[in-house]
Amino acid sequence: MYSAPVLPGETCVPPGGQGHHAGGGWIVGHVTGTAGAGGAGGAGGDAVPPLRPREFAAAVLRGQGQVTFLPSVAAGGVFCLALTAAGWEYGLYGLAGTAVGTGAARLLGADRDRVSLGLEGFNACLTALGLAAVLGPRHFSTALLALAGCGVVTVVTAAAGHLLGPLGLPSLTLPFCLTASATAAAAPGFRRIWHQGETLAAPPRPATGPTGLGPDDLARGFLSGFAEIFLAPQWHVGALLLLGLLVASRRAAAVACLGNAAGMATAWALGAPAAGIADGTAGYNAVLVALALCGGFLPARAATLAYALVGAAVATAAGPAVAALLAPSGGPVFTWPFVLTTLVFLAAATSFPRLGAHRRGAGPAVG
Amino acid sequence: MYSAPVLPGETCVPPGGQGHHAGGGWIVGHVTGTAGAGGAGGAGGDAVPPLRPREFAAAVLRGQGQVTFLPSVAAGGVFCLALTAAGWEYGLYGLAGTAVGTGAARLLGADRDRVSLGLEGFNACLTALGLAAVLGPRHFSTALLALAGCGVVTVVTAAAGHLLGPLGLPSLTLPFCLTASATAAAAPGFRRIWHQGETLAAPPRPATGPTGLGPDDLARGFLSGFAEIFLAPQWHVGALLLLGLLVASRRAAAVACLGNAAGMATAWALGAPAAGIADGTAGYNAVLVALALCGGFLPARAATLAYALVGAAVATAAGPAVAALLAPSGGPVFTWPFVLTTLVFLAAATSFPRLGAHRRGAGPAVG
Amino acid sequence: MYSAPVLPGETCVPPGGQGHHAGGGWIVGHVTGTAGAGGAGGAGGDAVPPLRPREFAAAVLRGQGQVTFLPSVAAGGVFCLALTAAGWEYGLYGLAGTAVGTGAARLLGADRDRVSLGLEGFNACLTALGLAAVLGPRHFSTALLALAGCGVVTVVTAAAGHLLGPLGLPSLTLPFCLTASATAAAAPGFRRIWHQGETLAAPPRPATGPTGLGPDDLARGFLSGFAEIFLAPQWHVGALLLLGLLVASRRAAAVACLGNAAGMATAWALGAPAAGIADGTAGYNAVLVALALCGGFLPARAATLAYALVGAAVATAAGPAVAALLAPSGGPVFTWPFVLTTLVFLAAATSFPRLGAHRRGAGPAVG
């Protein structure tokens, strides 16, 4: 539960391997830091003083790691390298976005521990990457707009927390999805930021093309599934991202791999075109759902793993539904299937005691 | 209030005729059973033991009855016959769907009384029928997907309860609408489950055709309005469903008839094409709204009957709005107009003391 | 905080100029009247007695003023004149709509002080105007439908208050947007109310046309920005509306002008076509956001002014996004960008202590 809104009296169950807890200390340090003093960065005592540069840098890297719910400096560093491997612009957008979001949250007076944990950075990271992908990273207008978007997503993050917090639900990447989808839908209405002529709007089309998968498709799809979490299509970027997961937590990496496989299997069984599996679009939501439901916001155990894999399958099936809903308006799918599926499965979890889901303090589960 | 989330301390006001309360006993038995021991099925003592086969069968039939908010074994049985009259596949989908949903909820550890009352079955029933109607009932892929959908809708039901329960609102058929709409929108993206070539997506079209109604149109439309609740278009199926309502509660049947008439009158007054009234699409949401607002979740009295008929008219007018919103993505309307209208009217009811709506315990009605 | 849901124990901070508080007394009288006895109208003692004709008339004019969050009889009167300048039908629709909404709320037993403050009138005013604009004001069917819509929007207002109140959020013009958008989307499906042949549905189009602005465009756009709040395009109507704001509160007028300028500057910077700036569509949401965030629902001070201007810019950028989402279904934008942006910024405000936003009693801001 490393990135969940840690409620008083809850036991934290960080899913990282035990080795990290004992050895590195930075995960546990900052999670428990929410309830009390500072973390591994050395800041003790009161929460009022601003972040020192080194702390800020750590918060930014953790913010990159939080895209996969891992407040890990090391994972964030590897993710940064992976993005740079997709293109130096993307590495820059991701890093600058995380920094701007983290800084904006701190300036606005957001909770210091949330900032330290990187919880104010990952939505900004994705927003910057999303705008770069949709509007083109090399336009100056895109850079300016991404800057503004990283500030706005900080406000949206606070709003999402205000609305979902009382329900015991995390905001996940909902702020990113809202901000990036709104910007992508609005962009063709503004001539100085839209440089592509036509809009992306089109009626949804039925799937075409072969459904048979070769080993090459499987391998590429599996690795690209990790890359698409950061909106990158390249398989070698995905390989680096998987490495980052492994560095932070072997258990999280295993869960992510299982989620990815569940997503790909679901897509194949339902008859998704092979091209859509091989490019990673069938797997990235499944990876995120699995990470969130097994170890992220529910304890990691057998029952939640099964629940997480069902969720991964549902998110994969829901992918084309989101695409069909947004296609006529010209909005990309982003991580909407992950967000919606995970919120439903987390909200439902308190009703099913056999799942072993912890019940939140005031969780009202009638209905 | 037979299917409302029964809050502690509330007085239950089941809308069934008094004869049922005194004679049959199964409605009251199981509603009050929520607060204490088992029900008419004979299960006393602790709530832990699993459902016995006969209890499970009763829960499944009640689940079919709950589509019209009636936890009635007899109504469920008649509804089952009516679906079979629409086609044996539909009878099978409806019954199997209710059974799978009821069983899945029990396996996941959902509240025993909710399961006994059929509250975990009716959304699954409709989901199975909805997928059969959209994807074609005779494909093996449809049967498998309906099976999976009935499991998923159980999770969605728990999530909806978690979100709406604290607001004092029931989840109605929202879980069915969400699951079936998502599946219908996603289906054309998967080749093994979509066998129709093109998608259903199309821009909304203005109404055409004559608006004058003959007696034959009126009679067919009235009866088909009941059938469309279960997504069936045949008037004789509707006649059987009305019989089922009568068997369970004469008052509920009368309210349903008035709601149907209010819906048809609204559609005619606004100028809906006669064809859309004669096929029942103008009435089914109105029937459900009337049942929910007069006797279902508000006490049955003159003021709520008037309120319910206004709601029935609003749901009928809202029908083409939902159709226009979903048409570009290829989603059928299902019972969205009923769900949205009823939630608005129930949420509003606590603010209007003159309506005689009971105020829920912690119902915060500021704003 | 003149139109906010006044929670017990909160200090009211009406943003009108001090002159109004000392001199006129009607603003403060009726705001504080929420907690105790009647207001300036003279009704003392218990809240049970009905509104006298003169009180009702004042409530209706205040309802017109509440479109800009000003419970001012004088502003409402000027707004009424402004609408009549746009066309006598619009003056009539606006006034009759406010009266019907106010009366319907009183009949249904809504809170007397809410009714006196005009809080039950402004959404009905806009609904009547919105239906007149979309369906044509001179059709008898439009007048009847507007009448019905003003009753329905009262129910939707109560529902929105029930859902948003516990979160400490006002319902703004959300009830109007929901009701008018649903009616506009549904209308082409009914032949007796739709007299225009084709639907308004169309795929979103990229912006075209020059982006350079002349002084004439700027002046017209600035004034029309006020007019578009009431769905009128004429600059002279906007001039009268600005006069109404000035009459009610010089501070509110100044904030509105700054918001308008921020919106127009944002639209120009992003490259909106000059035609879309000159007709006021770039400014009206920005005006409303600024009024709501600086003085309306947050205290008026430097920090909230900056926050409000950021919100005004965001709402302006979000405008084409809403348009793109609704275009395929044929729904006009109405004030959706204002509503969505303001709800997000208000929900976020409690998390940022440096903004100086007051924290609501039980505002849970985790997440």
Task: Describe the model.
The structure is a homotrimer of 367-residue chains. Chain A is an all-alpha fold. Chain A has 2 domains: 18-34 and 50-189, Ammonium transporter fold (Orthogonal Bundle); 220-355, Ammonium transporter AmtB like domains (Ammonium transporter fold, Orthogonal Bundle). Chain A has 16 helices and no strands. The first copy, chain A, has helices at residues 18-22, 26-32, 53-65, 73-86, 88-107, 112-116, 122-135, 140-164, 174-186, 215-227, 235-248, 250-270, 274-278, 284-296, 302-326, 336-349. In chain A, α4 packs antiparallel against α11. The longest helix of chain A is centred in the middle third of the chain and has 25 residues, at 140-164. Residues 1-47 and 359-367 of chain A have low confidence and may be disordered. Chains in contact: A-B, A-C, B-C. Chains A, B, C: It is a multi-pass membrane protein. Chains A, B, C: It is found in: Cell membrane.
Could you give the topology of this structure?
Three copies of one chain form a homotrimer.
Chain A: H1 18-22, H2 26-32, H3 53-65, H4 73-86, H5 88-107, H6 112-116, H7 122-135, H8 140-164, H9 174-186, H10 215-227, H11 235-248, H12 250-270, H13 274-278, H14 284-296, H15 302-326, H16 336-349
Helix pairs in contact in A: 3-4, 3-5, 4-5, 4-11, 5-7, 5-8, 7-8, 7-9, 8-9, 10-11, 10-12, 11-12, 12-14, 12-15, 14-15, 14-16, 15-16
> Architecture of the largest domain in chain A, according to CATH?
Orthogonal Bundle
| Number of domain units of chain A | 2
Which regions of chain A have little confidence, pLDDT < 50, spanning 5+ residues?
Answer: 1-47, 359-367
The CATH topology of the largest domain in chain A is Ammonium transporter fold
Pair of chains with the largest interface and how many residues each contributes: A-B, 43 and 45 residues
Please give the radius of gyration of chain A in angstroms. Answer: 19 Å
Distance between the termini of chain A: 26 Å
Main sheet specs of chain A? none
Oligomer class: homotrimer
**Overall 3D shape of chain A:** globular
